[in-house]
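[job 4471] stage=fold_predict status=RUNNING
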Amino acid sequence: MRASVSDLPIVLEEVSFASGGVTILDHISLAFATRAPAVLIGPNGAGKTTLLRLLMGLIAPVRGRVTWGGREDVEPTHRAIVFQRPVMLRRSAAGNIRYALAAAGVPRGERADRADELCALVGLNGLGRRPARKLSGGEQQRLALARALAKEPQILLLDEPTASLDPAATKAIEDVIRSIAARGIKVVMSTHDLGEARRLAGEIVLMHRGRLIENGSADTFFADPRTEEARRFIRGELLV
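[job 4471] inference complete, writing structure tokens
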């Protein structure tokens, strides 16, 4: 990758975030280092999306400290985020990627070839000329991944990337995520799907009501969870 300075590890120290008088993240201490994908799980309203936005640097904690590679207030040059419902530009799929490449400072003469490479990486071969807004939901999500990769990030943050997708589209997205992780990019993603967490996660972060309930290797979490809340969540019981 281009970057000589790493944004890893990302370390949160007693981080809290509130909006409109409501506490959304409550004294979170957590570290994301260079290893397999980290998957955030927990009920709706647990704070997963807010945590991803904070990791990206889009919001700042009201209390506590976040560091990227040991530094504070770091520009998100080496990070990219894909939201659950990405907005497609009114241009072709390849045009969307070329726009992202231009924003990343890639020379004009290199953009067409690089766009083709990114299309291939996310499984959109042959769809480069199709209007982005006419792609299926799963194809649009893969296009959003390609745009995010245009800046060659060290860290890729994904907010429920397979939400509302059918099994075939979900598998296609998961295959792309594995490919991205195999390239050494740190993936931190949220999901409501425990099956997906089992398939993809090297590390699990379980959240509930803005609190960190449990964090550790996925194998340990699913085989021998430490907390009663984790055991209930794995059994499919509601956390209220």
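[job 4471] summary: The longest strand covers residues 22-32.
[job 4471] exit 0
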